[in-house]
User: Fold this.
Amino acid sequence: MEFGIVELSRLQFAMTAMYHFLFVPLTLGLSILVAIMETVYVMTNRPIWRQMTKFWGLLFGINFALGVATGITMEFQFGMNWSYFSHYVGDIFGAPLALEGLMAFFLEATFVGLFFFGWDKLSKVQHLVVAWLVAIGSNFSALWILIANGWMQNPVGAAFNPMTMRMEMTDFFAVLFNEVAQAKFVHTVSAGYVTAAVFVIGVSAWYLLRERHVELARRSITVAAAFGLASAFSVVLLGDESGYSATHSQKMKLAAMEGMWHTEPAPAPFNLIGIPDQEARETKYALQIPLVMGLIGTRSLTSEIPGIEDLVAQAETRIRSGLIAYDALMMVREDRDATDPAVMATFEQHSADLGFAFLLRKYVDDPRTATEEQIKAAADDTVPTVWPLFWAFRIMVALGFGFIGTMAYFFWRSSFRRMQYPTWALHMAVWMIPAPWIAAEMGWFVAEYGRQPWTVDGVLPTAMSVSALSMTEVGLTLAGFVLFYTVLFIIEMGLMLKYIRKGPFQDVAETDAWVQRHHDRLSGRRNADAIAQPAE
Assistant:
């Protein structure tokens, strides 16, 4: 494939977006875990829980600050690299982004300061409310961002205005309650909760291996394991919901994820593993599980899931319909208010397929002049490269089931084995820390790469969305972002490792005194039980 301005702009946005998402899941999950720990502190008045809240809250704060820095630069790219996209769909896409800033970011940023500096100025209950407002603000940020992204995947509640040549919102609540956006939101935040749980367990396991901060580490594992187990189950169940929504909103993405080249008789089997061959249009050496894909994708035994070949044929039909809409649109633009009502009616009849005609702009300036070969080539362009989607999805799913097993094991040891963990399990927990980030990045790769060649699915091709920039200009900004983000990554890792090695350093004397009293009480009970045992 020729590497041009579109591909370079995509590379830049992918780099910044995936780097930013290194911070997002930990922010989402740690905000909730910290609020839970402070809730236990307020309920029990035990200093160990306040120390836990401050320690994990400090790591949350470092991650939050750097996440904000990377997120802001990412959003600037909509105007810098994707100006036509911003112009074409800004009326819809801009609304949730604006609400994210007004309702979520300001809420989160305002109360983060109170969380860190209000310990001695607020009552326990007031500070607890602040902690939960920080957590709610973090999750609200994700909600509005994912509503915007969900609209790009499933553009509902909007229509093309031939007079302004832009998409315009027709139903805000359809955008808000878009099934893809809602499924993505719950799936993404659950993945963030798992990320934080794995992180807390891994760091706590590192402390236990070195016999440091034992009481804090054991209690942290207990909370994170329970929270993470529920979240890991949610990720799998809600991922199933995302697959179901893709069956009627993004059929090509679903077929590519499964390496399903031909429509299978219902219910379709699931390709557990295999080697997708784009040239031969088949998945070689496929190991199939009967019925599973049909049940996941349609929740029935009788509904078919269309394969890639059938979807390409449908795309070709929609391109031809889009050409009728494009021709009518050119007449509307020429005649404006004097447009023949019959022409407008023709446009309205075929307007849903206008975006497919735009796929031909890759080959010709005027889609109406496209040859049959170019129409077929444009239809073939609707197929993303299958093998990376196929394997990224399976890596994500395999890790998801691994998280369930890990959380279940630590929950069992915490609940029924008095928070005693074997050395091998602690080592495994430490080495597992990067795994949820890998799973999250694979998930976003599937979501975004699987949408290609569209910026807005079925509406605006990626090739039309870019700004009129030169390769040099985009290359220089890409190099600048790589340098800037590398510096931020070094700062992030340095600060996180510094404070993890340092450990909890606040409320040490009070917490140590409570721990000693707690151990004395437990020893007293055991001695009393030992004395009473012979009498029984």
